C-alpha cells in the first residue's frame, strides 16, 4: 500500500494506492506551524482503517512543512520505504528552464502524470493557491509555463483592499452581467479566471503548436473547468498519480 502525499501552500492531499488503484484520498489544511508529532496523529487517524502502509511518496512546496515531514517519517515511519521528490530524485523529466532547482516538485510530478495519460505536447493547469500553467513537450520534458495569482487569494486581496467589497461564494452567477455586488464579484472571479486561462493557453499554443490536451487539476479546478473553452480534461488526482509513478521509478 502506497501513501502519496502532496503538500501544497493551502491544502495537503493524501492518496492511498493499492497497486495502480487509488482506493482512498483525503484533503486537509496545510499549516506551516504543525509539528511532526501533530502530523503523525492526524495521519494515523486517517489511516486507521487502512491496510498497513508499505511505501510513501511525498512532494512539498512548503519548506517548513517538509522539514517537519522528514522528522515525522524518521520517527513514525522509519521502516517504510520513502521517496521525497526533490533535486536529485529520479523522475525521468528533463527540466528545460533557466534554473531547474527552483521549479516546484508538484509541477514536475504533474508533468510525469500528464505525459503518461495524454502524451505531448500538453498543458497542465493547476488551480491552487496560485494558478500554474505548465508546458510539457512531446518527449515529456518540462518546458516552463506561467504563474498567476490563485482565485481565492485574489478574492481575499480584493475584499481586504476595497471597503465595500467582500468575500463571496465561488459559484456561477445568474449571468455575466451581475445585478448586485455578490453576482458581480462571482462573475468577475469565475468568468475572469476562465478567460485568463484560455488567453494564456492560446498564447502558449501559438508558441508551441497544437497540443494533445489541456489538463486541469487542483482543488479549485471544478469551479473553472465548465466555463473554460480551452480545458479538455479534468484530472483531480493528477499529482497523486505522478507521485506513484515517481515512487515506482525509484523503488525499482
Task: Say which CATH homologous superfamily of the largest domain is assigned.
Answer: ATPase, nucleotide binding domain
How far is the N terminus from the C terminus? 16 Å
Overall SS class:
alpha/beta
Quantity of strands, as a count: 10
What is the H/E order? Answer: EEEHEHEHEEEHHEHEH
Number of helices: 7
Low-confidence stretches: none
Radius of gyration: 19 Å
What's the overall average pLDDT, rounded?
A: 93
Q: Please write the CATH class name of the largest domain.
A: Alpha Beta
Order of strands in the sheet with most strands? 3-2-1-4-5
**Per CATH, which architecture of the largest domain?**
2-Layer Sandwich
User: Per the principal axes of the C-alpha atoms, what is the gross shape?
Assistant: globular
TL;DR?
By secondary structure, the chain is an alpha/beta fold. The protein has helices spanning 36-46, 63-76, 105-118, 151-161, 181-208, 221-224, 238-251; strands at residues 2-7, 11-18, 21-29, 55-60, 81-84, 122-127, 130-136, 142-149, 213-217, 233-234. The strands form two sheets. The protein has a five-stranded mixed beta sheet with strand order 3-2-1-4-5, with helices on both faces. A five-stranded mixed beta sheet has the order 8-7-6-9-10.
Amino acid at each position: 500500500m502506497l501513501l502519496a502525499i502532496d503538500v501544497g501552500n493551502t491544502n495537503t492531499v493524501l492518496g492511498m494506492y493499492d497497486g495502480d488503484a487509488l482506493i482512498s484520498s483525503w484533503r486537509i489544511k496545510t499549516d506551516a506551524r504543525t509539528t511532526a508529532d501533530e502530523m503523525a496523529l492526524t495521519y494515523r487517524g486517517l489511516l486507521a482503517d487502512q491496510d498497513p502502509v508499505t511505501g510513501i511518496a511525498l512532494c512539498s512546496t512548503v519548506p517548513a512543512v517538509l522539514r517537519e515531514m522528514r522528522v515525522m517519517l524518521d520517527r513514525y515511519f522509519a521502516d517504510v520505504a520513502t521517496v521525497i521528490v526533490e533535486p536529485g530524485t529520479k523522475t525521468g523529466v528533463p527540466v528545460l528552464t533557466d534554473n531547474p532547482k527552483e521549479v516546484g516538485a508538484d509541477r514536475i510530478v504533474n508533468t510525469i502524470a500528464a505525459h503518461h495519460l495524454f502524451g505531448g505536447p500538453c498543458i497542465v493547469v493547476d488551480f491552487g493557491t496560485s494558478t500554474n500553467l505548465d508546458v510539457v513537450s512531446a518527449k515529456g520534458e518540462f518546458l516552463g509555463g506561467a504563474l498567476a495569482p490563485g482565485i481565492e487569494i485574489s478574492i481575499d486581496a480584493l475584499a481586504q483592499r476595497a471597503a465595500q467589497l467582500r468575500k463571496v461564494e465561488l459559484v456561477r452567477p445568474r449571468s455575466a452581467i451581475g445585478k448586485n455586488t455578490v453576482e458581480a464579484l462571482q462573475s468577475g472571479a469565475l468568468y475572469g479566471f476562465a478567460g485568463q486561462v484560455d488567453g494564456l493557453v492560446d498564447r502558449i499554443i501559438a508558441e508551441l503548436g497544437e497540443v494533445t490536451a489541456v489538463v486541469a487539476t487542483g482543488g479549485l479546478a471544478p469551479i473553472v473547468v465548465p466555463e473554460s473553452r480551452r480545458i479538455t480534461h479534468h484530472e483531480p488526482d493528477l499529482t497523486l498519480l505522478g507521485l506513484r509513478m515517481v515512487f515506482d521509478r525509484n523503488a525499482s
